[in-house]
Amino acid sequence: MKLLSVVGARPQFVKLAPLCQRFREYPGVDHVVLHTGQHYDYRMSKIFFDQLGIPEPDWNLEIGSGTHGWQTAEMVKNIEPVLLKEKPDWVLVYGDTNSTLGGAMAAVKLHIPVAHIEAGLRSFNRTMPEEINRVLTDHCSTVLFCPTKAGMDNLSREGMKGRLILENARWVKTGEERSVQWCAMVGDLMYEVLNMSLDIAGRESTILPSLGLDPDSYYVVTVHRAENTDNPENFINILKGLAQVSKWKPVIFPIHPRTKKLMEQINRELISADNIKCIDPVSYFDMLVLVKNARAVLTDSGGLQKEAYILGTPCITLRSETEWVETVEMGWNVLVGTDPQAISNAVLKKDRLEIRPQLYGDGKTSRYILEILWGFPALTGDITLKGL
Ligand code: UD1
User: What is the pLDDT of residue 271?
Assistant: First the structure.
């Protein structure tokens, strides 16, 4: 079985890592990796391959930055000839970036089935480029791997009713027998990679001493969503909130390249406020250590909301909606938008809770994905990894 993964942006490299490792264990699986080049700085791309032991991509299209339409179109145009040459049985796409949609569109136009990893998530905000990418990718995929029940419910509401259910250690098809799309709740690859990495991150990362930080004595912040970085007013409001927060404890702010560009254009005084420490984007291991030991995380990232929850750190989300609704329902995450007062109030109020049920699967997501792809379409309940 030949699988081709399309990745291009930082969170996709993280999700790719456990799958690469899993696929390598099975000689019957040939896994080709295509990097679109959406993210290209060392600290946004290569450092993740090096740290997580992901082999060099077989293809790097070096597409780089551009407007959404241009970037997505370049991806479709340049992925197509690779697919024609490689002839994979499945194309795997991850998450919600322009690389996700570009990969999915190139594949379905060639009638190559698409497996969407991290399917079914919705913010219900169609002004987010990621929401459009998610909806379109889900609707053209054959197999939809959902991390959560909320994702499964969203797909069901949108008419994707075929289900792959794990029953007595066997995958069975239920729901619409004539469905052309199949949804499976397999947990989250980010949980799996986090479990694989936490010990080694604790041993190898020197981020806390190098920044002079003690556990529970700082906040960690990331901001890069278009709604916050394309709109200077939103971003300035966030900075005002952070300036207040930094009066209580240092604020560590690894700056995404998109955000750095905006910072260069706005009032420097806001940025140098008090105790806000702006640093370059950090590696995956450093981020795990920073989040695990922070008093709280303030972010507009999707992945960090989950990682904060898994690591038991309260999260304050700088958006007015989230795809990771269960972190809010459990009381570990709060949505505050960009109002400075709401941000600082939430920081004062948010504390660790006693109860934190496991929301993101059992850490075997990569195995379930492989089983389903291997056994599809003759999935009857007798799928086994033996003999792959
Ligand atoms: C993208 C994804 C978002 C994901 C995020 C992770 C889309 C629509 N958005 O947002 O879902 O959460 O990645 O980081 O695909 N840049 C660099 N160096 C790099 C990468 C980007 O300088 O290595 C600059 C580019 O000049 C670009 C800007 O950052 O203009 C934004 O990059 P882009 O790839 O468009 O989207 P992200 O904001 O990173």
Answer: 62
pTM for the model stands at 0.96
The answer, yes or no, to whether any atom of ligand 1 lies below 6 A from the CB of 274, is no
Q: Is there an atom of ligand 1 within 6 Å of 351 CB?
A: no
* pLDDT of 387: 54
Give backbone dihedrals phi and psi of 169, rounded to 5 degrees, phi first.
60, 20
pLDDT (mean) for 344-357: 92
Domains of the chain: 2-188+361-378 (3.40.50.2000), 207-349 (3.40.50.2000)
40: Cβ below 6 Å to ligand 1?
Answer: yes
Rounded-to-integer distance, Cα 57 and Cα 32, Å: 8
Q: Is 224 annotated as catalytic? A: yes
Query: Which of 301, 267, 308, 309 lies closest to 281 in space, CA to CA?
Result: 301
Whole-angstrom distance, CA of residue 265 vs CA of residue 259: 10
What confidence tier does 161 reach under pLDDT thresholds 50, 70, 90? confident
Output the six-digit token pair for 285.
Answer: 């291991």
Cα–Cα distance between 388 and 384 in angstroms, integer? 8
> For residue 380, what pLDDT is reported?
65
E strands in 148-285? 162-167, 170-174, 182-185, 219-222, 251-254, 276-279
Start-to-end CA distance of the chain, whole Å, equals 9
- Among candidate residues 241, 260, 242, the one with its CA nearest the CA of residue 251: 242
Cis geometry, peptide bond prior to residue 377 (ω within 30 degrees of 0): yes
Candidates 39, 50, 46; CA nearest to 94 is 39
